[in-house]
UniProtKB/TrEMBL annotation:
One of its GO terms (cellular component) is endomembrane system. Residues 496-506 have a biased composition (Basic residues). Protein glucosyltransferase that catalyzes the transfer of glucose from UDP-glucose to a serine residue within the consensus sequence peptide C-X-N-T-X-G-S-F-X-C. Can also catalyze the transfer of xylose from UDP-xylose but less efficiently. Specifically targets extracellular EGF repeats of proteins such as NOTCH1, NOTCH3, FBN1, FBN2 and LTBP1. May regulate the transport of NOTCH1 and NOTCH3 to the plasma membrane and thereby the Notch signaling pathway. One of its GO terms (molecular function) is glucosyltransferase activity. The keyword Glycosyltransferase applies. This is KDEL motif-containing protein 2 isoform X1. Filamin repeats lie at residues 22-132. The gene is Poglut3.
Length: 506
């Protein structure tokens, strides 16, 4: 995957100066890079980036003046191949860069031609030719060399959170897991699902009745299996909110290797990206409104035009959220907070009132976003980080898979668990506008890197790979397991060139 050249890494002050005047755009000097320009990088939504560059070779740091003139045409190389491809207009990220997305609904055998234009002129090396076959999301055609697949997606060589999670489990005793997990976590109120992946097929059985969220784990494992040959492994995934394994490594018995969507400081669960970010990645441009890509082009007015208040909307899933609303009532000049739905503290609705629902993109009309935990980590946090408001993050024992790469006062402003310093921090941000803006920008840029859809696939694969390497016995399809079939896709063509012909075809 090509990344922007070092010109993009100029000091911020120089970049600001370069973008301070309304420079025209040079199509040929502008830059295009990203996985959507590679045939082999199969993703639900393919995407790449554009950087507007002036005729003098300076990267623009704000949107070019006037209407967005970047446009993209994606079509089959062969006029004989009629394929369905949805290409919305590029998303303007308001900093001189643009995000281009397209979703394929068919596979093209000959290949794709991607024309990137600024006005009538071709951008960078446009037209880009992706030699076929170019597979769509639901084509079952796994790459049999996992290393080649990871190289195509430019997967990181290390993920510190994964290394930390597996440090507690140099080996995984599968036979012990088979006895202990059902006994400890398999009661009627359980939310654990037992998976086996064997020969790139997925099998599962549910433990307990609160396992409806298996639809989210099913869909990502199936999506991965369509793209790359997965290792054989057998594991348990916790679909509930809270991490489950609280034993310490030096205890007897020690912890067992459960997989969860959320971690905490006092648990040993192995963490995957949350079901929310996973589903939004799989269903982008189709089944969800907010996703990790669309949010980047919907971050509200520019910094100077945002309302100088801290903002919060959400359910009553934690008492501090009620405190937040009370603070808002007492300090409306600093804070606009409201509860949109009462479930846990219904008796408080009359006192605190119920706020109207707002579209998530409208949150970014405000300069400061308050992130307070829900039952566990607030799963809105990645979306807030991708905006261009300053995130005020509550101190929390809970974390998602990417939190370890973030630093307080560099990527966000920390606030006490009991919110006692929230108003002080909002006041600080108002009095230190440039510094607050810089922290917001650093957080946004880091989130853009960490939360790219291809990085999510890399993360899932690395967790499964690490787990498989540590299992001390051979995975099996157990009694009571059912296959999880790949979704039917009768509407689309898909001929996998990697598949060997069956005996009937010979």
């Amino acid at each position: 995957m090509r990344h922007p050249p070092p010109a993009l890494l100029l000091p911020l002050a120089l970049l600001v100066a370069a973008g301070a005047r309304e420079a025209p755009v040079s199509a040929r000097r502008s830059l295009a890079w990203g996985p959507g320009l590679q045939a082999a990088a199969v993703l639900p939504v393919r995407y790449f980036y554009l950087q507007a560059v002036s005729p003098e070779g300076r990267n623009l740091t704000r949107s070019p003046p006037g209407q967005t003139l970047f446009k993209v045409v994606v079509k089959s190389l062969s006029p004989k191949e009629l394929v369905r491809i949805h290409v919305p207009k590029p998303l303007d990220r308001n900093d001189g860069t643009f995000l281009v997305r397209y979703r394929m609904y068919d596979t093209v055998n000959e290949g794709l031609k991607i024309e990137v234009l600024y006005g009538d002129d071709h951008v960078a090396q446009s037209p880009y030719i992706l030699k076929g076959p170019v597979y769509h999301e639901y084509c079952v055609c796994p790459e049999e060399d996992p290393q080649a697949w990871q190289k195509t997606l430019s997967c990181p060589t290390q993920e510190p959170q994964i290394e930390e999670d597996f440090a507690s489990f140099p080996s995984i005793d599968l036979q012990h897991m088979l006895k202990e997990v059902p006994a400890r976590f398999g009661d009627e109120r359980g939310a654990v699902v037992h998976y086996t992946i064997l020969d790139n097929h997925i099998y599962r059985r549910s433990l307990g009745k609160y396992t409806d969220f298996k639809m989210f784990s099913d869909e990502i494992f199936l999506s991965l299996a369509r793209k790359v040959l997965l290792p054989d492994l057998e594991f348990y995934i916790n679909l509930g909110d809270w991490p489950l394994e609280h034993r310490k490594v030096n205890e007897t018995p020690g912890p067992i290797a459960l997989i969860s969507w959320c971690g905490s400081q006092d648990s040993r669960d192995i963490i995957l990206p949350t079901y929310d970010t996973t589903h939004s990645t799989l269903e982008a441009m189709r089944g969800v409104t907010n996703d990790l890509l669309s949010i980047q082009g919907n971050t509200g007015p520019s910094w100077i035009n945002k309302t100088e208040k801290a903002f919060f909307r959400g359910r009553d899933s934690r008492e501090e959220r009620l405190q937040l609303v009370q603070l808002s009532k007492e300090n409306p000049q600093l804070l606009d907070a409201g509860i949109t739905g009462y479930f846990f503290f219904q008796e408080k609705e009359k006192e605190l009132g119920k706020a109207k629902l707002m579209g998530f993109f409208d949150f970014f009309k405000f300069k400061y976003q308050v992130n307070v935990d829900g039952t566990v980590a607030a799963y809105r946090f990645p979306y807030l980080m991708l905006g261009d408001s300053l995130v005020l993050k509550q101190d929390s024992p809970y974390y998602e898979h990417f939190y370890g790469a973030l630093r307080p006062w560099k990527h966000y402003v920390p606030i006490q668990r009991n919110l006692s310093d929230l108003l002080e921090k909002v006041q600080w941000a108002k009095e230190n506008d440039e510094e607050a803006k810089q922290i917001a920008k650093e957080g946004q840029l880091t989130a853009r890197d960490l939360l790219q859809p291809h990085r999510l696939y890399c993360y899932y694969f690395r967790v499964l790979q690490k787990y498989a390497e540590r299992q001390s016995s051979k995975p099996e399809v157990r009694d009571g397991m059912e296959p999880v079939p790949q979704p039917g896709d009768d509407m689309s063509t898909c001929w996998c060139h990697r598949k060997k012909p069956s005996r009937e075809e010979l």
